[in-house]
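Standup notes, protein team

Yesterday: finished cleaning the Actinomadura fibrosa set.
Today: DUF6343 family protein structure.
Blockers: none.

Input for DUF6343 family protein:
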Amino acid sequence: MDDMRPPAGPDRHRQPPGTEPLTARSPLRLRAILSAVALVAAVAAGIAFAVAAARGGGAGPWAAAAVCALVAVIAAADLAVIARRHRA
């Protein structure tokens, strides 16, 4: 029963438990790419909707620009979290 415990000390996380492959990769890179794409797309769409609203498009484009701004803020926050986790 004692051989089932992970080793103590700094090397205790080196051996993956169970059937996890030794070449397992973190999904942070894919998550960062998706967040970056979402950030760029949301900023571009937000600018386009804001320009359309400024030309007299009514309340609809302003609401769409606000939603795009919210998506951009969430994507930027996600990129900040990813950067912090990557450094750790």
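Follow-up from PR in the comments: The chain has a mean pLDDT of 83.
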